[in-house]
Design goal:
This protein has about 180 residues and is α+β, with helices and mostly antiparallel strands. Helix content is about 25%, strand content about 35%. A 7-stranded mixed β-sheet has the order 1-2-3-4-5-7-6, sandwiched between helices. The termini are far apart.
Length: about 180
């Protein structure tokens, strides 16, 4: 597989990354149905999201960057699955790659680091919602042991049409 990046480093996301992370996410808001957000964000609007992902604990933000250029190539998160207390041992995970970094193994690198970071946490299940169609995301999640558990039909409306979301789950920890 071609690798235009000499070295990629995965680290926790920081305040210094907020502008680049916001720009990367806004691409998907504007151009795709991968996220159901419909309005772009400013870095200030995304700041609470950044702060909700500390360096430790079950809710992480990991960033992949090209060491040579310091350019962010993608990020992965684990976030609360639902707000009620009984869901505390479940997380929703996601990964976003820069548009020109897809298919280069960045998502794989990020998920590998994310799941390694979650190994010591009190987390029982990871869930991922994938707007359809998105074969690349389905392959990535399957490669990491996720299995398809159901599809919400026409659950979101964006760009004047309805979209399905396929849900995947993966067991975590020693359970």
């Amino acid at each position: 597989m071609p690798q235009p990046y000499a070295e990629v480093q995965v680290t926790p996301g920081t305040e210094a990354d907020l502008g680049a992370l916001t720009d990367l996410y806004n691409h998907y808001v504007r151009e795709t149905a991968i996220t159901f957000d419909t309005a772009v964000f400013t870095p200030e609007q995304r700041h609470p999201w950044l702060c909700s992902h500390p360096e430790d604990g079950p809710h992480r933000l990991l960033v992949a960057r090209d060491v040579r250029s310091d350019r962010i190539l993608g990020y992965a998160t684990s976030s609360p699955f639902r707000p009620k207390a009984a869901y505390a041992t479940s997380v929703e995970v996601s990964v976003y790659c820069a548009p020109d970094a897809g298919g280069l193994g960045i998502g794989t690198l990020l998920y590998k680091a994310l799941f390694e970071a979650l190994e010591g946490e009190d987390v029982h299940r990871a869930y991922a919602g994938i707007a359809q169609p998105n074969e690349a995301s389905a392959r990535l999640h399957t490669r990491f042991g996720f299995r398809h558990v159901g599809t919400y039909r026409e659950v979101g409306r964006k760009f004047g049409r309805y979209w399905d979301v396929a849900w995947y789950e993966k067991g975590l920890g020693a359970a």
